Amino acid sequence: MATTKFDANTTALEVVENLNVNLENKVVFITGGTSGIGVETARALATTKAHVFITARDITKGKEVVEELKKTTGNAQIDVLELDLTSLKSVEQCVQQFRTFQLPIHILICNAGIMAVPYSKTVDGFESQFGVNHLSHFYLVKSFLPELELGAPSRVVMVSSVLNKFQGINWEDIQWEQNYDKWLAYGQSKTANILFALQMNELYKSKGISSFALNPGAIMTNLQNVLSKEEQQSMGYFKDDGSLADFFKSVQQGAATSVYAALDPQLVHSKEIYLENCQVSNVVNDNKTEFVGRATHAADLNEAKKLWILSENLLENCRKS
Ligand SMILES: NC(=O)c1ccc[n+]([C@@H]2O[C@H](COP(=O)([O-])OP(=O)(O)OC[C@H]3O[C@@H](n4cnc5c(N)ncnc54)[C@H](OP(=O)(O)O)[C@@H]3O)[C@@H](O)[C@H]2O)c1
């Protein structure tokens, strides 16, 4: 696919304006719309006239964001649904709540996430980054297959990270019960996002559902609050004068690749599923110090199939217990 006119500096709204897509009567569903990239993704997509759903684990916070988005975009069709990805029951309830609207889904963006958190388990007993970032999204997307098929041609967009390079699927200890490393566990969960998009495409592209995964870039959001100032400093987040390092994007720039993945009509013809800086990226690069592309383990269809089966089995075991 030819490169686009967009780059790392493009904002989400600029993508919408340039692609000039009208999504009247279309439905966009975004997980984690209460902070950071998710809010700006929702804002940009709301300007297309789509009916936008965001999710919130704190519904009061979610309602405040919806009111602000309605004011700034002039779109009255913005709704919030409760969703806590640490609980599969909450995923089920969110799907049920959405079904009361009797709508298809045209664009489903799995954006919510946590990063480098201390070890903990979800309600259902999964390591929290694997559970929140991957398994609950796996369950949500699979539950929404009827809505995505109704909305076809439709898209699923997984917000991953360049930190997929840190770790492939840790098959020997997926739940990190021995030697938990918060960064490796994050890396595994973000690799899982990409492998999920790969296998989704294999299984559902022929039914009109295209799937993509992306690296939004580095953005200073609430996601980083889990890191101490010292840790942020040691990772080069700040210049000597205390201002933010040049590699950071603004939140509006950080949301741009999600919006591009959701909107560009040419993308459905792409064989590549991975995007960065509002471009398709076919870079497979295992060098962890080069913040571009995805690792070999995140481009491996066999790994994608294996993870899909494992995820289905984990959900099945939860249903039985
Ligand atoms: N920022 C970066 O530099 C960066 C880089 C690469 C990838 N990403 C990815 O980008 C995505 C968005 O991150 P962000 O930077 O915008 O972070 P953020 O500002 O912390 O936003 C994360 C969103 O996810 C929600 N969330 C967190 N835990 C949840 C749970 N258990 N159930 C449901 N929702 C939950 C948050 O809700 P609350 O408002 O309730 O907290 C919030 O809406 C993540 O998937 C992240 O991995 C970010």
TrEMBL record:
Keyword Oxidoreductase on this protein? yes
Task: Give GO MF terms, alphabetically.
Answer: oxidoreductase activity
Keywords in alphabetical order, please.
Oxidoreductase
Taxonomic superkingdom: Eukaryota
The cross-references to Pfam families, in alphabetical order and at most eight, read: adh_short (PF00106)
Q: Which family does it belong to?
A: Belongs to the short-chain dehydrogenases/reductases (SDR) family.
| Name of this protein | Uncharacterized protein
* Naturally occurring in which organism (per UniProt): Adineta ricciae
